[in-house]
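Dear colleague,

Thank you for sharing your sequence with our group. We've completed the structure prediction you requested, and as agreed, I am returning the results in plain text so they can be pasted directly into your records. Please verify that the sequence below matches your submission; if there's any discrepancy, let me know and we will rerun it promptly.
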Amino acid sequence: MNKEIPPEIRAVYPFESRWTDIGGGVSDGRGVMAVLALGTDTAIIETRLLLTQECPMHENVKQCLLSASELDTMH
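Please find the predicted structure tokens below.
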């Protein structure tokens, strides 16, 4: 895609790139559209996908993710 990258993103990601993606806090279609509206090419939604049945992650880790709040730090 040939979109102009906003200055807010350029400040963090200063070099020219042919492909730009953003992730973090994207969990539904609205989040994807918001990220794409910023001029990126893709939206990363990997944490959301960790909770699917298809993900081979251990169930205890999935439960920990499900019970976490925005104030928790996981390591």
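Summary note from our side: The chain has two domains: 1-44, 50-75.

Kind regards,
the structure core
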